Amino acid sequence: MVLQGAHKSGAQMAVVAIREETDPEIEQLATSLTWVGIGQLGRMIRFFKDEGVEKAIMAGQVKHVQIFSRAVPDARMLKVLLKLPRRNTDSLIGAIASELHSEGIELIDSTYFLQDSLPQVGVLTKRKPDAKERADIDYGLEIAREIARLDLGQTIVVRGKACVAIEAMEGTDETIRRAGNLVKRGLTVVKLAKPNQDMRFDVPVVGVPTLATMVEAGATCLCITAGKTLMFDAAEMIRFADEKKITIVATS
Q1: Domains of the chain (ranges plus CATH)?
Q2: Distance of alpha carbon 195 from alpha carbon 220, whole angstroms
Q3: Run means of pLDDT, 10 residues per run, the chain, 252 residues
Q4: How many CB atoms lie within 10 A of CB 57?
Q5: Entry pTM
Q6: In the chain, which end has fewer C-beta atoms inside a 10 angstrom radius, N or C?
């Protein structure tokens, strides 16, 4: 989606694709491309320098659990890791952004080419949240903002103004599934940006698979942050939500 948006704007994109995470179809869209392994920061920077890159954008996801994978960091990445006071998302990717900056490469807003995929404030679906769902949203927002501030995760699942599941490293879908294994219906999912969300990285993302997982788990309401959450295939998301009687709310 980023490459398609860049193409429409006339931007040329030199792409570093991560072997463990990136869809091979990326090769069909990139102007130039190199494949690297997790932790090959030095190789990535050398490629950017060779291509004359001055601005970079992060697209897609590297699962947090990759920190504990068997990937061997190169010397530059090892230097970054050794200096980190903690290995949460903000610290890790923020340090990579600093390394890029030291080489004259500016990391820009990851939604730069995806502005049409950011929702406005309001109810996005035909069905509005009922009184119970609204109460769970209000409660969930309070808790979700706190865990987002702590950079622990972006998602919580609520029922009856009680937390059923809180996200850590497992990701949104697994958090929702875990909640569904505990409580079979009437769940509300709240996924929020951090209070001071750095839009260069770790921007919340939802899509049709998120909603499909909600259906599987018995969740009927999704609350996201307006202007700071990427809705992949937004029109299809809303169509699917209306079909399944799911309500989607974007809040400030």
Answers
A1: 2-107 (3.40.50.20), 115-251 (3.40.140.80)
A2: 25
A3: 90 91 88 91 95 93 66 86 79 89 95 94 98 97 87 91 93 96 95 89 93 98 96 96 98 93
A4: 21
A5: 0.86
A6: C
